Every structure is written in structure tokens, then in C-alpha cells.
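Q: What structure does this chain adopt?
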Amino acid sequence: MKARLLALVVITALPLVGFDCIVSPFTVSINLDPLNGTYPIKPGATKYADSVIVNPGSLYNTSYELTGASVYDIKVSTSGRSNLGPCSGTIFVNGDTLLTFKGNWTDFSTPQSLLTSALMTRNAAGVTQLVNAVLSSQPVKLRAVGAVTNPLAGLNTDFVTVSAYVQAYGQLK
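A:
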């Protein structure tokens, strides 16, 4: 008799518990496109400095309201037809240092990941700034300042590209 009474109570309570879960908003993982900045190094130059503005709202479906975010990787790569020798740079996000990198130009011809490369060092303040900008949907200013040892000759332009990968979480609005 006690078992039947307990089973009746549990069966009666289950829809009430389930109802609360259905009414609550679901938090889902939202894959953002990478935040990319590509910075030219002009012929004859040994230094470069440039900025790009990225609108985080253009990187995901804005029918979601973001409730959290995290940076899961940052990659730096070089491209062009030249070998500019030793190179270095600092990447800023909205004025805060995101990361620094230093190595040979050819080291970065294959994108280097912050997760696995000893050629890059992240700065926690920049990571926090990036996450806060994404969560508030404010424009993100990615600025690169750096140098190369062997200036490029000719008409070609070579490039440094930075890609920040962010995972966000949110709910339908």
C-alpha cells in the first residue's frame, strides 16, 4: 500500500517538475564566426600598425541574447610571397593588450595557435576586454603594432592576420 501511495505521489509530481523546465529558457551554445584582423606590411616598411573594427553582432544570429562567452583560441598567421625574417607584434583589443607574438615570419606561415605555440603570450586583461565587448555587442577594435627585420622589396604587400575564436552562450530573445 505504501509503495502504491509513493508511486502515485511521484507520478503526480513529475508533470509539475517537468513543466518548470519547459517554461524556463534554454541556454544554448552559439558558435561565433572568428573575429579577424588582417594587417598589411607595405613594401620597404619594417614596421606596421593598423586597426580593424569588428561588430560582434555580425558574427552570430542576433535572435539570441548572449548570457556568457569565452575565448577558446587565438591564431596568428602571415601571408604573402616574401620572407620578412624575424617578426614581432602586439595585438590590442579596445586598447588593452590581447597578446604578443615573436618569431620568424615563416613560423607563422602556418597559423600559430595560442593553445600550442610558445611564440605567443596572452594577456588576461585583453581577453576580458574581448569577452566583455562581445557580450555587450559593442564594436571590437583590433589593433596590431609590430615590426619585421627584412623589409619587403617590390610591389607586393604581405600580411599578418589575427583570428580570435569566441564561444558564446545565450537564449532566444
